[in-house]
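To the wet lab folks,

You asked to see what we're planning to order before we commit. Fair enough. Below is the target structure as tokens, and below that is the sequence we designed to fit it. If anything looks off to you, flag it before the synthesis order goes out.
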């Protein structure tokens, strides 16, 4: 906007429609507080009247300028500015100024308010052009500070200081605003999906960790159970082995003490078990392997007794080898003949008793 010609009495600005009237010289004047009156004498600057009583010379002194020393808020009208990424923005703001030197404000510039408003607009365009749209929206405080510093650097010679500058409104094109809304929506959706995936990941980790701990605890329980079972089995085996060893020792002791009578009892027991074994085979299976002479009970019993006889003969030979070597060969022969005669006499009787017992056991097995 250009300045008016000399014929115009009031400069055209955005802020004032007419220039305020100046106080007249009435010789005695009272200057208000926070106000500076610039007095000219015969057209030349004379002095600045301070607040309070002032005496003027009629016709020679004239009050040329009246400056307020209070802080003043100036509205910066809306204007267009292009950002570094070629986005056109509409911005307006508010500028806060204060006169610190009435002489410079009167004689340094024709219209200080108009000059500062134009300087604020051009500075704001310059600062906006250095930033992208995102930086303009995020760094409004830094933008305000930069504009204030730029205005103060130029307005120092005008006797005016810029206290602060505030951007009031920023208007972006509708398409840009819609794109920004979509971007915000997409960003929110992205964050939601990331949080959802993180939650699912943590849930899967927790489930897997729980299963891992469950398997570990189950394996440890199974291990403890198997160790306990194995310990019990080992203890049972040891107990059975000790019991079996004691039983064998008792049988051997009885055979050593009872001699022939004990051997006959063992022979009878072997024959009974032989017959019972065949009876159990017939009960438990459909196919039974039996000897060829199963009909000959006497032969079966004789075979069983022959087996036991050979076992007894081996035991007798082992016992004879343990006997004292101090006995003479003749005495051993005599004792052997005497023992053999006695056995020959008692053998038929014992054999008959054993045979009867075996037959009775076989009859019981057939009845079962």
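Sequence we intend to order:
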């Amino acid at each position: 906007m250009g300045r008016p010609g000399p014929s115009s009495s009031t400069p055209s600005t955005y802020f004032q429609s007419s220039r305020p009237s100046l106080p007249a010289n009435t010789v005695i004047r009272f200057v208000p507080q926070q106000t500076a009156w610039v007095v000219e004498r015969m057209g030349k600057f004379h002095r600045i009247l301070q607040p309070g009583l002032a005496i003027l010379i009629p016709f020679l002194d004239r009050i040329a300028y009246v400056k307020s020393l209070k802080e003043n808020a100036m509205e910066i009208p809306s204007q267009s500015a292009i950002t570094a990424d070629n986005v056109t923005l509409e911005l307006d703001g508010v500028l806060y100024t204060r006169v610190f030197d009435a002489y410079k404000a009167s004689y340094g510039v024709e219209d200080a308010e108009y000059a500062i408003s134009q300087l604020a607009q051009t500075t704001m365009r310059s600062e906006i052009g250095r930033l992208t749209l995102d930086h303009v929206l995020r760094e409004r405080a830094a933008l305000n500070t930069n504009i204030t510093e730029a205005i103060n650097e130029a307005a120092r010679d005008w006797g005016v200081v810029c206290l602060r500058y505030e951007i009031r409104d920023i208007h972006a094109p509708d398409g840009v605003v819609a794109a920004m809304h979509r971007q915000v929506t997409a960003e929110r959706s992205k964050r939601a999906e990331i949080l959802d995936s993180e939650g699912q990941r943590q849930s899967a980790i927790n489930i897997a960790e729980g299963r891992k701990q469950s398997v570990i605890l189950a394996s440890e329980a199974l291990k403890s159970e198997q160790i306990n079972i194995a310990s019990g089995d080992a203890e049972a085996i040891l107990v059975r082995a000790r019991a079996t060893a004691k039983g064998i020792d008792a049988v051997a002791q009885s055979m050593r003490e009872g001699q022939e009578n004990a051997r006959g009892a063992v022979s009878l027991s072997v024959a009974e078990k032989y017959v019972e074994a065949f009876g159990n085979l017939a009960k438990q299976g459909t196919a039974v392997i039996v000897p060829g002479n199963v009909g000959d009970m006497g032969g079966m019993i004789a075979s069983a007794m022959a087996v036991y006889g050979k076992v007894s003969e081996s035991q007798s030979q082992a016992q004879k080898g343990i006997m004292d070597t101090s006995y003479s060969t003749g005495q051993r022969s005599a004792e052997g003949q005497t023992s053999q005669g006695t056995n020959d006499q008692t053998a038929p009787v014992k054999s008959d008793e054993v045979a009867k017992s075996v037959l009775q056991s076989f009859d019981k097995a057939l009845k079962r």
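Structural context that might help your review: The helical segments are 102-107, 112-129, 133-138, 140-155, 174-258, 260-284, 297-322, 329-367. Strands lie at 28-31, 35-41, 44-49, 52-55, 61-68, 72-82, 88-99, 160-171.

Thanks,
Computational group
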